[in-house]
C-alpha cells in the first residue's frame, strides 16, 4: 500500500472486541488464577487492540497459502531488524550476533544456563517481573535482590547495596529489566554507566531484558545497554522482541544479540543442547511487518495509551487519593502505590479483587518490595478503564464511607513534583570520573583475559 495512504489510516482503538473463548490467558481462565468472569481483567501485558494492518496482511497471505513448514532467518529479516535497532535505538548489530528465539524468557533462561552454574547467584532489581524469580529458581540458581529505592513517587538505584550484594554473594549474572517492569522506570545513561562499571569491576555478566524498549514516554529515552561502550558490548546479552509493543506475544518471536564471540559460542552450544530447532513462521513474518511498516499504527497506539494513562492518573488523583500513581517513564503498565490506604498487603489485594471486582496484578507477585502495590495494564479500550475506575471508586467510597461523611475530603493528592533527573543530581564531574574508571576497568579486564 502507498505510504501516503497508510499514513492517513486512522485506527479505532475504542472498538469493543470480545476476547472471550479465544484461549486468551487474560480472559479465558480466570478460575485458574482465583478470579471469575465478573472481574475486569487488566493484568497480563498484552493489548486488547488488533495489530497493525501490515501485520494482519502478511499473516493473511501466509494463511491463504496454508503451508507452515520450517522457517529460517532470511537476509531480509536480518536487514529489517538491523535497521530498526539502528534507527530507533542507534544500536548497530551484526548478523552473527542474532538469535531468533520463541520468547524473551526463553532467551534469558538460555543465558542463565550458558553463563552460570547451578548454585550461582543471579541478581535482580526488586520489585521485578515475577518470571525473573522463577527462571532463576527453576534453573537451581540463587536469587539476589537489589531493592530499588522508592522515594517521592520515583524509583532509584541503591549503588552501595548493588555493589555489596554482588561482592557478598559472588554474583555471576545481573538480570536487568530496562525499561523496568513493573515500576516503569527507564534507566538513564548515567545510571546504566554506574551499574555497568560495578559489573565490570566484579566481572558480572549483564543480561539486559529490553522487551519494553519501544514503549517510552517523552522526555525519557532508552539506552541499549550495549551502546554504553564498545568494550562493554562484549559483557552483555541484549534481549528484545516486538511482542509487547506490537501486540504479538502469542506469535512467539524474540531477538537476542550477543556481540562477544566466546559468549556466543557458549550460548549456541546451550541452545543446541535443548535442540532448539527453528523459529515460528508467523512470528517472524509479523516481526518483519512490525519493524518495517507498522509505524502508523505504533504512533497511534502510543498516543491512545498515553491518553489512557492521563485519564487514569487524573481519575485516581481526584477520586481515590489514598492510591498514588507511580508515573511510568516507559511500558504500558502502571504501578499503583497503595500504602496510604491504611490496609495490610492482603487487605489491599482483597479490596481490588473482592470489593472492586478488578483483576490487577497484585504487587506481591513482584516480590516483597511489591507489597502495598498493584499493577494495571493500560493497553485497553478507554471504556474498559472507565468501568474499572468507576468500580474502584465505588469500592473506595464504601471503604472510606465514615471518613468521607465526617469531613469533606480535601483532595489529598500532593502535586507530584517533577523530581529532578538523576543525571542532574549527580555532579557532572562525578559521573565523568566513574566513566573514566569504567573504561579503565574494561581495558584492564581485557588485558587479564588476554594473559
Ligand atoms: C520484562 C519482561 N520480560 C519478558 C517478558 C515476557 O517475554 P516473552 O513472552 O517473550 O517470554 C515480559 C512480558 O510481559 C516482560 O514484561
Plain-language structure description:
With 451 residues, the chain is α/β, with parallel strands linked by helices. The protein has 2 domains: 3-52 and 296-406, Alpha-Beta Complex (Aspartate Aminotransferase, domain 1); 57-294 and 423-450, Type I PLP-dependent aspartate aminotransferase-like (Major domain) (Aspartate Aminotransferase, domain 2, 3-Layer(aba) Sandwich), CATH 3.40.640.10. Helices cover 43% and strands 14% of the residues. It is built from 15 helices and 15 strands. It has helices spanning 3-8, 53-65, 75-89, 104-115, 130-138, 159-169, 189-201, 261-273, 281-293, 295-319, 345-355, 382-399, 401-406, 422-425, 428-450, and strands at 40-41, 98-101, 121-126, 142-147, 149-151, 154-156, 171-177, 205-209, 236-240, 254-258, 324-326, 333-337, 358-359, 361-362, 373-377. The strands form 4 sheets. The protein has a 7-stranded mixed sheet, with helices on both faces. A 4-stranded antiparallel sheet has the order 11-12-15-14. The protein has a two-stranded parallel ribbon with strand order 1-13. Strand 5 (149-151) and strand 6 form a beta hairpin. Helix 2 packs antiparallel against helix 9 (281-293), helix 4 packs across helix 8 (261-273) and helix 6 (159-169) runs parallel beside helix 7 (189-201). The longest helix has 25 residues, at 295-319. Residues 415-421 have low confidence and may be disordered. Pyridoxal-5'-phosphate (PLP) binds at residues 45, 103-105, 129, 177, 181, 209, 211, 241, 243, 249, 254.
Amino acid at each position: 500500500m502507498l505510504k501516503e495512504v497508510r499514513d492517513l489510516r486512522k485506527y479505532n482503538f475504542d472498538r469493543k472486541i470480545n476476547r472471550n473463548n479465544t484461549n486468551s490467558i487474560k480472559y479465558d481462565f480466570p478460575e485458574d488464577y482465583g478470579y471469575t468472569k465478573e472481574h475486569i481483567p487488566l493484568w497480563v501485558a498484552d493489548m486488547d487492540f488488533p495489530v497493525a494492518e501490515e501485520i494482519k496482511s502478511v499473516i493473511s497471505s501466509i494463511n491463504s497459502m496454508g503451508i507452515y513448514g520450517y522457517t529460517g532467518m532470511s537476509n531480509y529479516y536480518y536487514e529489517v531488524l538491523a535497521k530498526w535497532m539502528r534507527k530507533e535505538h542507534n544500536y548497530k548489530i551484526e548478523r552473527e550476533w542474532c538469535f531468533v528465539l520463541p520468547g524473551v524468557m526463553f532467551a534469558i533462561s538460555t543465558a542463565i544456563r550458558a553463563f552460570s552454574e547451578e548454585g550461582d547467584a543471579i541478581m535482580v532489581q526488586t520489585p521485578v517481573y515475577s518470571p525473573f524469580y522463577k527462571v532463576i529458581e527453576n534453573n537451581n540458581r540463587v536469587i539476589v535482590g537489589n531493592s530499588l529505592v522508592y522515594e517521592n513517587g520515583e524509583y532509584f538505584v541503591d549503588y552501595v547495596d548493588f555493589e555489596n550484594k554482588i561482592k557478598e554473594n559472588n554474583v555471576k549474572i545481573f538480570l536487568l529489566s530496562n525499561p523496568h517492569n513493573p515500576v516503569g522506570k527507564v534507566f538513564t545513561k548515567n545510571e546504566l554507566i554506574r551499574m555497568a562499571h560495578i559489573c565490570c569491576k566484579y566481572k558480572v555478566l549483564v543480561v539486559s531484558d529490553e522487551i519494553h524498549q519501544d514503549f517510552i514516554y517523552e522526555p525519557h529515552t532508552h539506552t541499549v545497554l550495549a551502546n554504553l561502550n564498545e568494550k562493554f558490548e562484549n559483557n552483555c546479552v541484549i534481549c528484545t522482541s516486538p511482542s509487547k509493543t506490537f501486540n504479538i506475544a502469542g506469535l512467539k518471536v524474540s531477538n537476542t544479540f550477543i556481540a562477544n564471540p566466546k559468549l556466543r559460542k557458549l550460548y549456541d552450544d546451550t541452545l543446541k543442547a535443548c535442540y532448539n530447532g527453528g523459529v515460528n513462521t508467523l512470528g517472524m513474518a509479523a516481526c518483519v511487518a512490525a519493524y518495517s511498516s507498522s509505524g502508523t499504527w505504533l504512533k497511534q497506539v502510543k498516543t491512545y495509551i498515553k491518553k489512557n494513562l492521563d485519564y487514569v492518573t487524573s481519575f485516581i488523583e481526584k477520586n481515590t487519593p489514598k492510591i498514588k500513581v507511580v508515573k511510568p517513564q516507559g511500558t504500558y503498565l502502571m504501578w499503583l502505590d497503595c500504602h496510604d490506604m491504611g490496609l495490610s498487603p492482603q487487605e489491599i489485594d482483597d479490596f481490588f479483587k473482592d470489593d472492586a471486582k478488578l483483576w490487577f496484578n497484585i504487587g506481591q507477585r513482584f516480590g516483597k518490595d511489591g507489597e502495598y502495590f498493584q499493577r494495571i495494564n493500560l493497553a485497553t479500550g478507554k471504556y474498559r478503564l472507565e468501568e474499572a475506575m468507576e468500580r474502584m471508586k465505588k469500592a473506595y467510597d464504601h471503604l472510606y464511607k465514615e471518613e468521607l461523611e465526617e469531613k469533606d475530603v480535601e483532595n489529598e493528592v500532593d502535586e507530584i513534583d517533577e523530581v529532578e533527573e538523576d543525571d542532574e543530581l549527580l555532579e557532572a564531574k562525578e559521573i565523568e570520573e566513574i566513566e573514566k574508571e569504567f573504561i579503565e576497568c574494561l581495558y584492564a579486564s581485557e588485558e587479564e583475559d588476554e594473559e
